[in-house]
Design brief:
Elements (H helix, E strand, L loop, with lengths): L3 E6 L5 H9 L17 E7 L2 E7 L10 H16 L2 E7 L6 H11 L5 E6 L20 E3 L8 H10 L6 H5 L4 E7 L5 H9 L17 E7 L2 E7 L12 H16 L2 E7 L7 H12 L4 E6 L10 H12 L8 E3 L8 H15 L5 H14 L4 E2 L2 E2 L2 E8 L4 E6 L7 H14 L8 E6 L5
Parallel strand pairs: 1-3, 1-4, 4-5, 5-6, 7-9, 7-10, 10-11, 11-12, 16-17
Antiparallel strand pairs: 2-3, 8-9, 13-14, 15-16
Helix pairs in contact: 2-7, 11-12
């Protein structure tokens, strides 16, 4: 799981300028007017071989009772709560203000590494940093986010705080990690308890009982698993407390570190909600193999066509992940849990399937021969050859004459050809395009 670095500080200290420089993209709006950034903004970043998540936050004014400031403060507190390291931004030109002291007091109580960045130091002058030691932090770095001065030393210090891989992490390296996700009260904890064979997590009709992601190692029929129960994921506008918001972030992280994700849906509601689809979409975007688990099947009134009706709705709502695998179970009675575990192993193996270069290029060649690539302005796309770059999810690189000529519909056609020739059910696959250059 990637470490998370949160950037906090009062308004107009250059947090967003730093964020944009490190992430390599202009994501945060940079402006001299304080308070431009209001919500948390996320990006992936890399330094010296360390991958991490970078979070930009709005400018904090702890003493302000303005409604927008309360919102910004809450978002910043969430970022701090979920971060591994915090960068506290100050401004050498403004000097230390009352807001700096109030933010420093908050950060000293959280028990996490805090690196103090004194920004806008266009020329390195160590004597200008002395007063900032009064904020109570030993790691102080003078930088210029705009010019890039001192950034390397700051980042070296930040990555030195990243959690090291402990022996306990390797203990379960051969286990299949299964994250159980879904809306509140869909039966996630009931399923975990049934799989484990004992009551390891609280089961209640009250939505939101589970707050943390709970890992439980278990061996079933000779197979080793780590079952990760997660908090129910509600729509953003329904999340009404900081604890629940943090729990939702923990659930997202559980998806990222899982090998297989079970998307739990309450089939007794007789409709697949927008939030069910949104959760499945997040799993799809993260490239995770998954099983759609239609729970509470024991209390659904059924006739000959009931399953077909549900499958038709799944096909319609989940057409963006047509590869999905579904199972209709009862976590309460244990019905079809053996089928569920069979699907877990199947989609896990499919996500790790390797295809030889010869077989892969034969499939692509046949696809091109059947339906030639598109052309634009008299220039036709040419696919020279393909290779598999990695697994989990299976990722294929196509070397072409000009990747800009690839239309999304033809890319979808090639993906379908791969799926028709090989079993990638239950897992996303990725196609990456690369222009062939001399020497490739």
């Amino acid at each position: 799981m990637k470490p998370t670095v949160a950037i906090v500080g009062k308004p107009n200290t250059g947090k967003s300028t730093f964020f944009n420089r490190i992430s390599g993209r202009r994501i945060s709006i940079v402006h001299d007017v304080p308070g431009v950034t209001r919500d948390r903004i996320f990006a992936e970043a890399d330094w010296a071989g360390h991958n991490f998540n970078l979070v930009d936050t709005g400018g904090l004014e702890p003493a302000s009772e303005d409604q927008m400031q309360r919102h910004i403060r809450r978002q910043a507190e969430l970022a701090i709560a979920t971060a591994d390291v915090i960068i506290f931004f100050t401004d050498v030109k403004q000097g230390i203000t009352a807001s700096d002291y109030e933010i420093a007091e908050l950060l000293r109580t959280i028990g996490k590494p805090v690196v103090l960045a004194v920004n806008k130091l266009d020329v390195y002058q160590p004597d200008l940093l002395y007063e900032f030691y009064s904020l109570g932090f030993s790691d102080i770095y003078g930088i210029s986010a705009e010019q890039g001065l001192g950034i390397g030393d700051l980042l070296d210090k930040i990555v030195s705080y990243f959690p090291k891989i402990e022996a306990s992490d390797d203990e379960f390296k051969d286990y299949i990690k299964i994250a159980v996700v879904g809306r509140p009260n869909t039966g996630k904890s009931s399923l975990v308890n049934k799989l484990v064979g004992e009551e390891r997590v609280i089961v209640s009709d009250i939505a939101g009982t589970t707050r943390d992601s709970i890992d439980t190692p278990v061996t079933i029929n000779g197979e080793n698993y780590v079952i990760i129960d997660t908090a129910g994921l509600r729509r953003k506008r329904s999340v009404d407390c900081a604890v629940e918001a943090i729990s939702a972030i923990q659930s997202m992280k559980a998806i990222e570190r899982a090998d297989v994700v079970l998307v739990m849906i309450d089939s007794s509601e007789k409709i697949i909600s927008e939030q069910d689809v949104r959760i499945a979409g997040y799993v799809h975007e993260k490239g995770k193999p998954s099983v759609i688990v239609m729970n509470k099947w024991d209390i659904v009134e059924k006739d000959t066509y009931t399953i077909e009706k549900y499958k038709k709705e799944l096909d319609e709502k989940l057409k963006f992940m047509s590869y999905y695998k579904e199972v209709f179970i009862s976590a309460k009675t244990g019905k079809r849990l053996d089928k569920l575990l069979e699907l877990v192993k199947e989609v896990y193996q499919n996500s790790r399937r390797r295809v030889s270069t010869g077989v892969l290029n034969e499939i692509i060649s046949n696809a091109v021969a059947t339906t030639p690539p598109p052309s634009s302005a008299g220039k036709q796309l040419k696919i020279y050859y393909a290779t598999q770059a990695k697994t989990a999810p299976p990722t294929f690189v196509l070397f072409v004459n000009d990747y800009k000529l690839m239309h999304f519909s033809y890319e979808r056609y090639l993906e379908n050809c791969l799926r028709n020739a090989l079993d990638f059910s239950g897992t996303p696959i990725l196609l990456q395009l690369k222009n062939k250059t001399k020497g490739d």
